[in-house]
Amino acid sequence: MNNSLELNFEDFLLIVFIALSLLNIYGNYNSKLYQKTNDSYYKYYSNKIFKFTLSITLLIYIYFFYRNYTAYQKVSDKEKKLYSIKVFGTIFLITGILCLLYFQNNETDFFKYTSYLIYFSTSSLSSK
pTM for this one? Predict the structure, then answer.
C-alpha cells in the first residue's frame, strides 16, 4: 500500500473506532438496563454488541500487526529494536482482545458479579 492510501485507510479506521466506542456505550447502557430490570434480553443484546466490537477491533489490530511487522522488516538494524516494540505491543493487544473475546463467549453471570462488586464498593465507601 502506498503512503497516501495507507493514511486514508487509517483515517477510516479511526472513524470505525469512534463507531465501535459509541456501540460500546450503547452496550453499557443495555447492561445497566439488565441490572435494573433483570430482563435477559438486555444482557443478550449487550453481549452481542461487545462480541461484535471486540471482533472488529481484533481485525483492526491484525492489520496494525501486519503494518508494523512490514515496517520492522524494512528498517535498518539500528532501528529494529525500536520497531520490535511496536510489533510486540500489537501482539500484546491482540492477545488481550482474544482473552476478552474468550471471556465474553464463556461468561455466565458477569452481571451478577458486577452487581456484587458495585454493592460492596459502595457499602465500604459509605461506612467510612
Answer: 0.76
Residue span of the structural domain in which 67 resides? 3-126
Cell numbers linked to 41: 434480553
Domain count for the chain, please give it. Answer: 1
pLDDT in tens, 18-60: 999 999 999 999 989 998 998 889 888 988 999 999 999 999 9
* Rounded (10°) angle between helices 3-37 and 110-126: 70
Cell of 55: 471482533
Q: Which residues, 6+ apart, have CB-to-CB distance to 35 below 8 Å?
A: 111, 114, 115
Residue 31's contacts (CB-CB under 8 Å, 6 or more residues apart) are 42, 43, 46, 111, 114
Our measurement of the distance from residue 14's CA atom to the centroid of its chain's CA atoms, rounded to an integer in Å, reads 14
| Range list of H helices, 1-128 | 3-37, 40-74, 77-106, 110-126
Torsional class of 38: left (φ above 0), alpha (ψ -120 to 50), beta (otherwise): left
